[in-house]
């Protein structure tokens, strides 16, 4: 039996996410538009499917409100914020980032 490999769509998603530089973030919807043929929800599924130790910087994908979406029973969200803060991303008191400062590309 062959080992599981992600669908080609996931490979395209991961290729885009790998382009986000440290200290920058993109939204699930933005990645979906760049990849084409998928939804923001599918981007979330692709990020959740990453194996531990992956080289895909999953932490750099957040929701369009500039917040981290809850996942991993809360621990995933804590880890994601910590990783982003280590890259220099700053969150306001409501847990949002400034898209003008930390956004990777223009957000529609």
Structure, described:
With 108 residues, this protein is mainly alpha-helical. The chain has a single domain, classed as Winged helix-like DNA-binding domain superfamily/Winged helix DNA-binding domain (Arc Repressor Mutant, subunit A). The protein is 40% helix and 4% strand. It has a two-stranded parallel ribbon with strand order 1-2.
List the helices and strands and how they pair.
Blueprint: H1 8-17, E1 26-27, H2 28-35, H3 40-48, E2 61-62, H4 75-86, H5 99-102
Features:
108 residues, mainly alpha, Arc Repressor Mutant, subunit A, two-stranded parallel ribbon, 5 helices
Please provide the ordered H/E string of secondary-structure elements: HEHHEHH
Cα(first) to Cα(last) distance is 44 Å
Number of domains: 1
Number of helices: 5
The CATH level-2 architecture is identified as Orthogonal Bundle
Structural class: mainly alpha
CATH topology: Arc Repressor Mutant, subunit A
Assess the beta-strand content as a share of residues. under 5%
pLDDT < 50 runs, ≥5 residues:
none
Helix content estimate: 25-40%
CATH superfamily, called what? Winged helix-like DNA-binding domain superfamily/Winged helix DNA-binding domain
Question: What is the gist of this entry?
Answer:
The chain is mainly alpha-helical and 108 residues long. The chain is built from 5 helices and 2 strands. Helix content is 40%, strand content 4%.
């Amino acid at each position: 039996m062959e080992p599981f490999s992600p669908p080609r769509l996931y490979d395209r998603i991961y290729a885009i996410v790998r382009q986000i530089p440290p200290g920058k973030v993109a939204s699930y919807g933005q990645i979906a538009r760049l990849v084409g043929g998928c939804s923001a929800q599918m981007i979330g599924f692709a990020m959740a499917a990453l194996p531990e130790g992956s080289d895909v910087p999953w932490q750099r994908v957040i929701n369009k409100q500039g917040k981290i979406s809850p996942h991993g029973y809360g621990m995933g969200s804590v880890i994601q914020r910590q990783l982003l803060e280590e890259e220099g991303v700053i969150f306001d008191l409501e847990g949002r980032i400034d898209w003008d400062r930390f956004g990777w590309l223009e957000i529609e």
